């Protein structure tokens, strides 16, 4: 029965639960395809951030002497790269996977939200593997865990919400405007340098630090370092840190909710345009 829907019911989020097995197989497919017929396989998950950390350590840590809030620069950089690469990979996959699944969309009905959602969830596998390497670095550099590590899932959830929210907007736009696929890598690269991934919040003059809260990934990366490494200056370097974190959360949630409604409003045209 086809009925008109309004408000939150228009999102049909209950259909995601009904098709949960399909979502599971899409996530599993994304993981398998990503490393199928590769010589190194899952080692790429460790190799990419490790090599990036090495390059950033030489350029920013040794040559430019960028401060690292009292932490060894390699672990400071890797702790920022890990949540960032999860976000960047999820955003990139989510923004293009509607077009990549064009044959499936035009042949059978299923909740279209499962496609971008699978792109975000499949990245959690890579994140978990990368987290193992970060734990090894913490042992090598003798960085102890603190009770704040219990808040780590919250910042991971914030990264997931941010990636899914922006990904929904970009994936729906990419169906109509294929320029989005070319634009996303540039956006991700520029966004990284506007996020305290390889530099600490404390190097920004205090009068400009509130502007960092407009970037939800600032809260993710700074909160990740604080929760896992005990890097208190990543948080206290912000003016009114609690208020700024709340602002970052509100922006991320706002983008997600608006992205859901925009995605659902344009979903009816996907099969015709794609």
What can you tell me about this protein's structure?
With 274 residues, this protein is mostly helical. It has twelve helices and no strands. Helix 2 packs across helix 6, helix 3 crosses helix 4 and helix 4 packs parallel to helix 7. The model has no long low-confidence stretch (mean pLDDT 84).
Discrete helix count: 12
Whole-number mean pLDDT: 84
Low-confidence stretches: none
Distance between the termini: 26 Å
Our estimate of the beta-strand percent is: under 5%
Q: How many β-strand stretches?
A: 0
Number of domains: 1
In this structure, how is the largest beta sheet organized? none
- List SSEs in N-to-C order: HHHHHHHHHHHH
Helix content: 55-70%
Radius of gyration: 20 Å
Structural class: mainly alpha
- The best one-word shape is globular
Quick rundown:
This protein has 274 residues and is mainly α. Helix content is 69%, strand content 0%.
Give a quick set of tags describing it.
globular; mainly alpha; 12 helices; 0% strand; 274 residues
What is the topological layout?
Blueprint: H1 14-18, H2 20-35, H3 43-63, H4 73-100, H5 102-105, H6 114-140, H7 152-176, H8 179-193, H9 216-229, H10 233-236, H11 241-266, H12 270-273
Helix pairs in contact: 2-6, 3-4, 4-6, 4-7, 4-8, 4-9, 6-7, 7-8, 7-9, 7-11, 9-11
């Amino acid at each position: 029965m086809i009925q008109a829907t309004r408000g939150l019911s228009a999102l049909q989020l209950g259909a995601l639960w009904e098709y949960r097995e399909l979502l599971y197989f899409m996530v599993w497919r994304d993981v398998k395809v990503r490393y199928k017929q590769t010589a190194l396989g899952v080692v790429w998950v460790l190799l990419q951030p490790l090599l990036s950390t090495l390059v950033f350590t030489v350029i920013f840590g040794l040559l430019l002497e960028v401060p690292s809030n009292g932490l060894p620069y390699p672990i400071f950089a890797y702790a920022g790269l890990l949540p960032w690469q999860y976000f960047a990979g999820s955003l990139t996959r989510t923004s293009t996977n509607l077009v990549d699944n064009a044959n499936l969309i035009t042949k059978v009905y299923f909740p279209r939200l499962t496609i971008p959602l699978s792109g975000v969830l499949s990245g959690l596998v890579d994140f978990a593997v990368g987290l193992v390497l970060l734990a090894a670095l913490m042992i090598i550099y003798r960085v102890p865990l603190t009770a704040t590590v219990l808040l780590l899932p919250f910042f991971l959830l914030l990264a997931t919400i941010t990636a899914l929210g922006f990904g929904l907007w970009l994936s729906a736009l990419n169906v109509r405007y294929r320029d989005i696929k070319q634009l996303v890598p540039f956006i991700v690269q520029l966004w990284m340098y506007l996020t305290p991934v390889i530099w600490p919040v404390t190097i920004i003059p205090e009068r400009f630090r509130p502007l960092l809260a407009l970037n939800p990934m600032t809260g993710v990366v700074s909160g990740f370092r604080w929760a896992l490494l005990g890097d208190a200056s990543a948080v206290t370097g912000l003016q009114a840190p609690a208020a700024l974190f709340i602002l970052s959360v509100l922006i991320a949630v706002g983008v997600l909710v608006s992205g859901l409604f925009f995605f659902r409003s344009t979903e009816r045209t996907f099969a015709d345009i794609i």
